[in-house]
Amino acid sequence: MDLLSRKPKGRPWWLNALLGLDQFLAALSGQDPDWTVSGALGERQWRSWGGGNIPWRRPLKALLQRSLDRMDRKHCLKAYRTELLERGLRPPVALVMTIQGIPLSREEG
User: Fold this and answer.
1) Are the C-beta atoms of 82 and 72 separated by less than 8 Å?
2) Is 6 domain-assigned?
3) What is the rounded CA–CA span in Å between residue 87 and residue 28?
4) pLDDT tens digits for the chain (109 residues)?
5) Which DSSP string do the residues of 27-78 spell out, in sequence order?
6) From CA 18, how far away is CA 41, in angstroms rounded?
7) In a domain, 49, yes or no
8) What is the pTM of this model?
9) If 0-12 CB within 10 Å is exposed, 13-18 middle and 19+ buried, where does residue 64 land?
10) Local structure of 55: helix, strand or coil
11) Residue 78 lies in a domain
12) Stretch (H or E) spanning 60
């Protein structure tokens, strides 16, 4: 089997090319190149704003996060969860609940 016929993890070539571009852009922006841009945005979104949108004082990150989340609901938070799982880390329960749309606290009444 030659190198050109191999498909890592069974993904099509174009998806691998997009993932490579994603990691290249992460490295250019000073992020860990092993993390995708979506995963890094999801981590910032979760750690800094508890799953809410990234504020507009960070215009490029806010625009990118909102654009990705518009195409795929909660895309960045899902990517962050995936990044944690791929590294053998357990995502916080509150993160999983936020992605699934489960309220974090119940109002009594």
Assistant:
1) no
2) no
3) 22
4) 455 555 556 788 888 898 888 888 888 878 888 888 899 899 988 888 777 888 888 898 889 999 999 999 999 999 999 999 998 998 888 888 888 887 655 443 3
5) HHTTS-TTS-HHHHHHHHHHHHHTTSPPPTTSHHHHHHHHHHHHHSTTHHHH
6) 17
7) yes
8) 0.73
9) middle
10) coil
11) yes
12) helix 59-71
Q: Is the Cα dihedral 96, 46, 25, 86 positive or negative?
A: negative
Amino acid at 53: N
The H or E element spanning position 8 is: none
Please tell me the number of Cα atoms within 13 Å of 37 on its side-chain side. Answer: 21
Domain count, the chain: 1
Amino acid letter, residue 100: Q
| 17 within domain boundaries | no
Residue-number span of the structural domain to which 58 is assigned: 36-100
Tell me the residue type at 70. R
